[in-house]
Amino acid sequence: GAVVSQHPSRVICKSGTSVKIECRSLDFQATTMFWYRQFPKQSLMLMATSNEGSKATYEQGVEKDKFLINHASLTLSTLTVTSAHPEDSSFYICSARDWRGSTDTQYFGPGTRLTVL
Amino acid sequence: KNQVEQSPQSLIILEGKNCTLQCNYTVSPFSNLRWYKQDTGRGPVSLTIMTFSENTKSNGRYTATLDADTKQSSLHITASQLSDSASYICVVSFAGGGADGLTFGKGTHLIIQP
Questions:
Q1: How many Cβ atoms are within 10 Å of A49's Cβ, its own excluded?
Q2: How much is the pLDDT for B97?
Q3: Which of B44, B80, B99, B88 has the alpha carbon at shortest distance from B64?
Q4: Could you read off the pLDDT of B35-61 as tens digits, one per residue?
Q5: Contact between chains at B104 and A44 (C-beta distance less than 8 A)
Q6: What are the C-alpha distances in Å from A68 to residues A75, B43, B100?
Q7: Could you give the percent of chain B with pLDDT greater than 70?
């Protein structure tokens, strides 16, 4: 199956700093990528849809100025958590949409554990 | 409102035993249903994906069934192994919604005990 990578896998930062998370589709081009957040023992919650070459679409309640998304190429989307606070500590997962088969499929990255002190 | 309900919320079984996880949905119009396995601290990995016309699909020891009439799906795990311990997530997409039209279940947390 297709591979989606994330970097870093985990990050610890001080409150007030910004953190950038990268999501890459390694063997296919993804015009659409998605960013999710997952709290312990909870399901994935969609934060935003990242479209290559255009602005991201944010879900209701997600602050676009706090969670900056850039999808500058067909294989890379980045999520920057600006001025991070402890409540932003969570597991962030990206996914990339693969249109090559008869059914469009989403492949998820391995996730990034963010801890804000 | 599109919803996906999974049961049980958690399950503990002995290694070698079989188990069945349930998924009921109200997503409409239906496009496809996927089962994912998510290990702790990892991203979800696809196990099966079924469209409206498919009733069953297997992936090794995992067999998923779909009844589009009753809007129910199940994931059967045969001869469980310790490595099967994970959360199993049922995800349903509605037609025309694209990948942002996915509705996630809350998952079943499965623990395999030796």
A1: 19
A2: 57
A3: B88
A4: 999 998 899 999 999 988 899 999 999
A5: yes
A6: 17, 21, 18
A7: 95
Is the peptide bond between B44 and the residue preceding it cis, with omega within 30 degrees of 0?
A: no
pLDDT tens-place string over residues A20-29: 999 999 988 8
**How far apart are the C-alpha atoms of B76 and B74, rounded to whole Å?**
6
Cβ contacts below 8 Å, chain A against chain B, sum to 52
- Alpha carbon distance B45, B43 (integer Å): 7
Query: Between chains, do A93 and B43 touch, taking CB under 8 Å as contact?
Result: yes
Nearest alpha carbon to residue B48 among B32, B71, B31 = B32
A33 touching B (Cβ < 8 Å): no
Report CB contact under 8 Å: A32, B99. Answer: yes
- Which tokens is A78 given? 């980045």
Q: Do A103 and B36 touch (CB under 8 A)?
A: no
Angstroms from A79 CA to nearest CA on chain B: 16
Whether a cis peptide bond, with omega within 30° of 0, leads into B29 is: yes
Degrees, nearest 5: CA angle B112-B33-B84: 15
Nearest-5° Cα angle at B44, B43 to B50: 160
Contact by Cβ (8 Å): A50, A69: yes
Token representation of residue A50: 């990242």
